[in-house]
Amino acid sequence: MELFEAVLTRSSKRDFKDIPVPLDLIDKILTASLRAPSWSNSQPWEIAVSTGKTSDFIKQRIYKRASEDDPGSPDFPFPISWPEKQITNILEAGKHRYESLGISRDDGAKRKEVALYNYVFFGSQTAIFIYIDEDLGHWSVLDCGMLAQNILLCVHASGLGACPQAYLVRYPDILREAFKLPKRKRFILGISIGFYKKDSIINNIKTSRVKLKDAVTYYD
Ligand SMILES: Cc1cc2nc3c(=O)[nH]c(=O)nc-3n(C[C@H](O)[C@H](O)[C@H](O)COP(=O)(O)O)c2cc1C
Description:
The protein is α+β, with helices and mostly antiparallel strands. The protein has a domain at 13-79 and 120-203: 3-Layer(aba) Sandwich (NADH Oxidase), CATH 3.40.109.10. The protein has helices at residues 3-9, 23-33, 52-67, 84-100, 108-116, 138-157, 172-178, 212-215, and strands spanning 46-50, 126-133, 161-165, 185-194. The chain has a four-stranded antiparallel beta sheet with strand order 1-2-4-3, with helices on both faces. Helix 2 crosses helix 6. It is globular and about 40 Å long. It binds flavin mononucleotide. Flavin mononucleotide binds at residues 11-12, 14, 93, 118, 163-167, 189, 207. Flavin mononucleotide is lined by residues 11-12, 14, 93, 118, 163-167, 189, 207.
């Protein structure tokens, strides 16, 4: 797949088939993704690939906490408020998603069900977790973002789907237990990966973007 086509056609997938992603394909995706740039080639990222029993363990634990409305304690705290411009974008994306799914604004139970699907990797058996050591700072988190985007694009170019998920790192104590990591390892992002259901409505939602002129200023 040509690069511009990959960038323009990628979208988050949120409904996967219950089949494992072959490990050699994950190796291929990660080998390419690890070509991501980083500050002075510091390569701050550490990656845990969750499959099989490890995924079952994580899903069972994080789903339970989320269904009990436990807010968790992410290593990188979730935003508690947003400026107006971002609120507008967020609300528009949410409205479009729930309208596409035929879920009304006040159907809290259905909305919760959709949200909780996050915590079972959207039905996939596979998720990739990116974490860093506590000695690393802001710039290393940025480096990890570049790695994450590479992963999303390589997954897409391989014909599979992925969704980057802050929700997957909401309960990092469970992840450290699952991956046998010390407390100093801090989780940045989880990415569910899998063979996605092509006809699923949620997998066919195309999010919008602000116009070029509203995001970019040219200076001569
Ligand atoms: C850092 C980050 C965290 C995200 N966390 C979640 C999440 O927890 N759950 C989810 O369903 N989507 C999550 N997303 C996906 C975004 O909602 C999605 O990228 C955005 O709406 C644009 O849609 P697109 O990816 O289909 O282009 C996250 C994306 C990023 C970059």
